[in-house]
């Protein structure tokens, strides 16, 4: 795992931190891993800041879940109000789930007019897979080579970024992700589509067939690839020619983070068949879902009984509705565009005098800075990226790394991030680069 | 689906209800189904009552999720306080997840000393399957013939109650559930174990092997089977003889509902290898998890990276901690034992003059009343059960039905259910039986 704490190294940590880690390791399964060489102990959050029990403030430039800011009072109030009034499931009639579904689907193209709500992005991906596979009558799914789509059995079988310990499914095919730092922008889209076609051919050669092409529309875990706009079109066309569906994983880019559009697919001018939503949807309250074409949902419902006990509960919907209100009222998508552009320009300035920061890319407040040991050969340098992440942490600035080689910084703050906050990051980055 | 509304029959409904159903059908996927011939429109909940927008009060004798009562003020307060303070994930250190994990695991046998937290029971079952299958190195799972274990791809493949439209997995074997109404109590446990052994033999005959025996320890969807105490022991021994694990699905019986013990497996004096928890855990706040033996978690972590973004977040843990406090302070397990016994006695009295209510069974506040067309032949009568459910709904008492034939009433109220509430149910039941 990128940026993982080695639990053998407790000795140099503050006593309170080490003591809590020891308690954690006794009662939580060993899969629980901490970030950083020096893990961050948190007690409080507000806006784009997190605070330790000692009052130390950390600038959050990493967390996309609290998209409208940590502990936003309007979300807290909406949840408190609804929790004190009614929290039940969708086999009774309640206003809240319908109000939210109407508001949410209004943000999509007309063809994607219905939603099914779950609690996590993993559940949303898993449901989208069930719908697509049932519709096509085939199990094949094509994903990128460092994709991450979730932790259910089915989602993990098509999440190669989880590593060799998690076997890919028999009918899963991986293809190289687009790489705007190394590929020719003129041909990148066609190359990606050619990989899709090759995977389709390979599935067919094995007597299988593709149900879907599934990718994150900003390729987060493949290192963040956003441009050129429209480059995903040929790949989407290729899966449709073969009779398969295109499932957009919007768990990362969704809800305005890219600044350019509410959804990553919309930036590129394509319409998916199914869209999986997650992380930022409820600002931390567990809610996720699948938006899609009614014909697909109708067919699935005819064949299959599906009910998600907590999915669409009024409290989660109240949180999610407040998020939509805040995104609109505080113009956070617009802010993401402005501040993101400012931050990328600042990072590019820094890169001029630090040539091993070889590429700055992204859109809005989803930014990657890629480190290389040789700027000409573009050789990935994960160790350097890791040192920068930990140097920033020592300066109380939280980010992480991403990509197949783990050599790209992942810069992805809560959306109320201002140019002042960007300056704090840029100052910290300058010092971190000097020290790393 | 049992007790489902037929969406073609809108005309006889109140205008506001019909209007909301029409809006719902436009924006929610067709899988969303409502209960009852006359769906219930809800606006508010408190304790064991739910209220419509018109103020009409419904006695809730069905919902197990709000286990400490609808909108319990201590849960609302705990969530409000934590949401305004910090909500983040487990890759940072926070107190709340450790505090909760310590409190939760203290309620288990010493061998089951660790937990991994998820958001839903489906995710918990799916994770338990991943751990078991990875440990054993085999895919086989044995479940009961009308089992329900969740809606992820992997969970649905071993949930035969979802119907023929959801194919069982290749290595899933179903066995007849125990049936305390028809089986000889002296041999029921051995018969159940013999079915387990036969399924193991069949898996082996197909070149496969059993990873686990998985069942709900009160067999909720098989019609609720709780007695005789200890009858599951031979089946658990059978899977272990074959080298497989026993996974207890405690999503339904867990957290004291049976009155006799905190967990269904504990009633029977067995120790599972893994335990899946869900629904009542956070009183409606999405939280679930797997409790198990540390050696299993250690092995899984060595092989597999697993992280659940919302799993173990401080807000969900605060809700779950409040639930444990309330269960203890309000002595709700003890209440379940007392009121459950009172209710079963009252139902048995009613059955004396209504012999088609052929069996009353269960423990604590998990009770089934089984309807038959012929009390001697014990022929299931689902239509009668359905009429009773709808007659009760007309009297504003909410229950549902269960079992392979759908002929058993499922009586499963929030735990602060008093003898006065039981009297309301019994009066309503008497009238419903007369009218059905």
Automatic annotation (TrEMBL), chains A, B:
Record keywords: Aminotransferase, Pyridoxal phosphate, Transferase
Cited Gene3D superfamilies: Aspartate Aminotransferase, domain 1 (3.90.1150.10), Type I PLP-dependent aspartate aminotransferase-like (Major domain) (3.40.640.10)
SUPFAM superfamilies: PLP-dependent transferases
Cofactor: pyridoxal 5'-phosphate
GO molecular function: pyridoxal phosphate binding; transaminase activity
Family classification: Belongs to the class-III pyridoxal-phosphate-dependent aminotransferase family.
Protein name, per record: Aspartate aminotransferase family protein
């Amino acid at each position: 795992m990128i940026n993982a704490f080695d639990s053998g190294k407790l000795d140099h940590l503050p006593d309170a931190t080490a003591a809590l880690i020891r308690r954690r390791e006794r009662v939580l399964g060993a899969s629980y891993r901490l970030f950083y060489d020096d893990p961050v102990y948190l007690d409080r959050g507000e806006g784009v800041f997190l605070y330790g029990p000692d009052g130390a403030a950390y600038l959050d430039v990493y967390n996309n879940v609290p998209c409208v800011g940590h502990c936003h009072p309007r979300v807290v109030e909406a949840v408190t109000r609804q929790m004190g009034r009614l929290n039940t499931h969708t086999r009774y009639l309640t206003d809240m789930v319908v109000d939210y579904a109407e508001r949410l689907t209004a943000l999509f193209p007309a063809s994607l007019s219905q939603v099914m709500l779950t609690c996590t992005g993993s559940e949303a991906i898993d449901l989208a897979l069930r719908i697509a596979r049932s519709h096509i009558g085939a199990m094949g799914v094509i994903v990128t080579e460092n994709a991450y789509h979730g932790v259910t059995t089915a989602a993990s079988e098509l999440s190669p970024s989880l590593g060799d310990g998690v076997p890919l499914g028999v009918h899963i095919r991986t293809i190289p992700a687009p790489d705007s730092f190394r590929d020719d922008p003129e041909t990148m889209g066609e190359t990606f589509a050619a990989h899709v076609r090759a995977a389709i051919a390979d599935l067919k050669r094995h007597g299988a067939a593709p149900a879907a092409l599934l990718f994150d529309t900003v390729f987060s875990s493949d290192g963040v690839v956003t441009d050129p706009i429209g480059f995903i079109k040929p790949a989407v066309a290729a899966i449709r020619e073969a009779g398969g569906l295109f499932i957009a994983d919007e768990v990362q880019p969704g809800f305005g983070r890219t600044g350019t559009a509410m959804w990553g697919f919309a930036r590129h001018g394509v319409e998916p068949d199914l869209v999986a939503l997650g992380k930022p949807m409820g600002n931390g309250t567990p809610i996720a879902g699948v938006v899609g074409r009614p014909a697909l949902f109708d067919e699935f419902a005819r064949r299959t009984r599906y009910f998600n006990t907590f999915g669409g509960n009024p409290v989660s919907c109240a949180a999610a509705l407040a998020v939509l209100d805040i995104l609109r009222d505080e113009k956070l998508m617009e802010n993401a565009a402005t501040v993101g552009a400012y931050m990328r320009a600042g990072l590019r300035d820094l890169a001029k005098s630090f040539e091993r920061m070889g590429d700055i890319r992204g859109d809005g407040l989803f930014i990657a800075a890629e480190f290389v040991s040789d700027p000409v050969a573009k050789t990935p340098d994960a160790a350097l990226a890791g040192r920068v992440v930990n140097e920033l942490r020592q300066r109380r600035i939280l980010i992480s790394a991403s990509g197949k080689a783990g050599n790209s910084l992942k810069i992805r703050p809560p959306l109320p991030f201002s140019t002042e906050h960007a300056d704090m990051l840029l100052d910290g980055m300058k010092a971190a680069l000097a020290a790393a």
